[in-house]
Amino acid sequence: MLSNLLRSLRFFRLPARSHAPAAAAGVLVITIVVAAYGCAGTPGRDEIDRSQTRLELAKDYLQRQQLEAAENEANRALVIHPRNEEAHPLLGLIDLIRGWRAQRLLEVDGCLRGIDAEVQSAEKQRHLQAAEAHFAAACQLAPEFGEAWANRGTAAMLLAGHEEAAAHFRQALAHPARLTNVALVRANLGWAHFLNGDLVAAAKELLEATQMQPGMCVASYRLGRVYFARKEWENALRKFAEVAGQTACPIQEAHLYLMKTQIELGDTTGLDQAASKCMALAPESCIAPQCSQLGSMSGSGAGSAAGSAAGSAEGSAAGFELTSAPVSAASSESSGPTGMQPGIQPIEVVP
Length: 351
Known about the structure:
16 helices, about 60% helix, Serine Threonine Protein Phosphatase 5, Tetratricopeptide repeat, single chain, mainly alpha
């Protein structure tokens, strides 16, 4: 999810210097700025340039994962030019990353319980709410900013606002010119439908995402979950096996659901080896004990005991792309963003 978030930086831009007729997006931005400033007047070119210089510094710090320095520079950019449409998305990304990191501490890097879990959960909630507020401000300033809508959807989904998330993802898809990864946004929209219980709508979006970007493991995993929920075991097995075989995108839940699907099909051979692969991805996660439990059923002919044996694999942020190459060796389907889905590159969020 982090790499997805970082990639969207290239969509940040200011109105053109030229006084020639602007493109529709530029006209909209200028109209908003003039209306907001009213009698105070519009910012001069010097203020815009100084604000942009601060923002470029913030982007550089964010690329290097120096969140506090990035936040300081982005806030300075806003002080100089309060209607800088790019500063709010960047501040939102910083809080989205912080929320994603709290989620990792809760469920991936460890499986926290008691007061430790409550502390991290409160931290996650605080950062995600701050992220949503920044993205909302960006969408108000620049309604055509597709990436801001997509990231707003990721924050909403991580906050369990699935209907709101779906609405934000649809807005993002309506403005593809300033969108980093259309296929990933479709996959996120499909997951929002899944979490709302609309499996048909979920399958539609996820199938389209896999057609747009063949081999996208996050869409394939989610499609497998749709098949699993509908008890279409053969289709589910195919999708989970496809994802589990991709070392570049190690989604631990895909390995768990591959084991569950095997059991539903009455095949318990090799579960011990599958469990070892699953646990190796994130040994301290909440998923690892479930994999271990299913692995103990290897060769037992245990039939359809997968559900009761393993319980639920979903965390509070289930379904987000969290390929963790920038942070650690493990990954969880929890965008975002990642994602953290859940856009400055995919945190490949999955929100």
